Amino acid sequence: MAIPISNVTRRVVYAASGTGPYAFTFEILANTDIAVYRDDTLLTLTTNYTVTINSNGTGSITLTSAPTGATQIAIVGNRTIQRTTDFVTGGDFFANTVNDEMDQQTIFAQQNAEGLNRALQAPQTDPTSINMILPRKADRANKTLAFDADGNPSIGISASDISNAVTYATNAANSATAAASSASSASSSASSATSSASTATTQASNASTSASNASTSASNASTSATNAAASASTATTQASNASTSATNAASSASAASTSASNASASASSAASAQTAAEAARDSALAAYDNFDDRYLGAKSSNPALDNDGNALLAGALYYNTTVPEMRLYTGSAWVAAYVSGAGFVAQSSSTGSAYMPAGTTGQRDGSPSAGYLRFNSTLAKFEGYNGTAWSSVGGGATGGGSDDIFIENGQTVTTNYTISTNKNAMSTGPITINSGITVTVPSGSNWVVL
Predict the structure, then answer these.
(1) What is the 3-state secondary structure (H, E, C) of 359-399?
(2) Which residue among 58, 223, 230, 301 has the highest number of C-beta atoms inside a 10 angstrom radius?
(3) How far apart are CA 30 and CA 28, in angstroms?
């Protein structure tokens, strides 16, 4: 069925609500050209859903039962990428066949574009020197994804580095607690020094009382000058000693006050250090939790929740050890985080030529499949495998300059060949058929040798 193929994305996502119908606006050729997902579960045609195709190729799907517990229904273009049509030189070339083939190729291109658009890509304005190839598997295992100074993917910190950062923050908090305890001890020492100063003041007061008593004794010593003089001398000495004790006590009190001030400053610094350490610890824990929610590590299958048991975040990554490959969560499904260039045909430039595999006749594939294409350097021409034999591709007349006059063919048949049913063939002789080689002409077909 030849239909126009619109420029639309071959994917549509709905909030799950009943059995449908759920419409899609991209064109398909058959009901097997789409894949339907209930959340992350791939559904089966007929068993889980049916497809209705409109005359313009768009259509809808209807679920066979209500999607209980599901949140999303996704419809994605999923036509099997293969080519079943083979145009034979001199054969029929019908418009409907060509249209179907071109429709199919356009669908393939849109499917690939839809997948590539959801892959991790560099912006169009990035330099052409950007290299988005990830580091080797052994190097990036259990590491975060980072980018170097040029913007190229590189290896980030490991999970063990993050664990160490948390440990360091915890140790800093413990040190701050110990410092606070030391400050408390210093404050106690200052309190003891203040008590000592109070005791010294009491002793000075007692000495003053003794001096007063000595003065009284001196007055009474008028009856005995010698005893009075001796008592006065003794009293003067005691007063001098008491004054010295008072001075020493005042010095001790001043030193104790200074120690108390220093202890208070130390306590304040310790409190500030503790606050900073706790803030660093909380910041490190928050950074680790954010990283742990984004990069889930290595797993054998697609996770349904993050490492904390919470809902997955769009943009989350993990490494699938079964495939193996890095995968990205789009918000509804896990997809490959990058597309390998292996298997793509290279080209000389954006307007140049494709690099077609080339080799001799003896270097043909040992077990080819229909659709294989190569340049035969022995025969100096392009050839393709139609499922049973290799044959020339293209061809047509040739000649000197721009002449298109001569059609050339070989003179020796070296490989068994069967002319297609209801087809005729023509060659220019003489023709030699090697020993043991058979050319089969089916009933209703002809082979003419001129």
Answers:
(1) ECHHHCCCCCCCCCEEEECCCCEEEEECCCCEEECCCCCEC
(2) 58
(3) 6
41 DSSP β-pair partners: 38
pLDDT at 189: 56
β-strand partners of 53: 59
Task: Confirm if 302 and 334 have CB atoms less than 8 A apart.
Answer: yes
Q: Cα–Cα distances in Å, from 67 out to 15, 63, 77, 297, 312?
A: 10, 8, 21, 31, 21
Q: In this predicted structure, what is the pLDDT of residue 228?
A: 32
Output the pLDDT for position 331: 94
Structural contact between residues 24 and 78, judged by C-beta atoms closer than 8 angstroms: no
Which residues on neighbouring strands pair with residue 49, listed in sequence order?
A: 45, 63
CA–CA gap between residue 24 and residue 75 (Å, rounded): 7
Q: What is residue 417's predicted lDDT score, i.e. its pLDDT? A: 92
Residue 370 CA to residue 84 CA, distance in Å, equals: 9
What pLDDT shows up at residue 197?
A: 46
pLDDT along the chain (450 residues), means of 10: 80 93 92 93 95 94 93 91 75 69 70 66 69 82 86 84 84 75 62 55 56 53 48 55 62 65 76 88 88 93 95 94 93 86 77 89 94 91 89 72 77 93 93 96 94
State how far the Cα of 24 lies from the Cα of 16, in Å rounded to an integer.
15
SS3 label, residue 447: strand
Tokens in use for 43?
């559904």
For strand 447-449 and strand 425-427, is the pairing parallel, antiparallel, or unpaired?
A: parallel
Cα separation, 125 vs 129, in Å, equals: 11
pLDDT at 218: 42
CA distance 286 to 262: 36
Whole-angstrom distance, CA of residue 255 vs CA of residue 190: 9
The pLDDT value given to residue 370: 93
Tokens of 390: 């290799």
The pLDDT of residue 238 is 58
Structure tokens at 303: 């996770």
- In single-letter form, the type of residue at position 124 comes to Q
Predicted local confidence at residue 195, as pLDDT: 64
271/265 Cα distance (integer angstroms): 10
Instruction: Tell me the two tokens of residue 45.
Output: 């045609």
**Tokens standing for residue 351:** 């307007």
Distance in angstroms (rounded) separating the CA atoms of residues 416 and 445: 17
pLDDT of residue 199: 59
Torsion of CA 201, 202, 203, 205, to 10 degrees: 90
In degrees, rounded to 5, the angle at the alpha carbon of residue 99 between the alpha carbons of residues 94 and 100 is 100
The pLDDT, as a whole number, for residue 39 is: 94
- For the beta carbon of residue 314, count every other beta carbon within 10 angstroms: 9
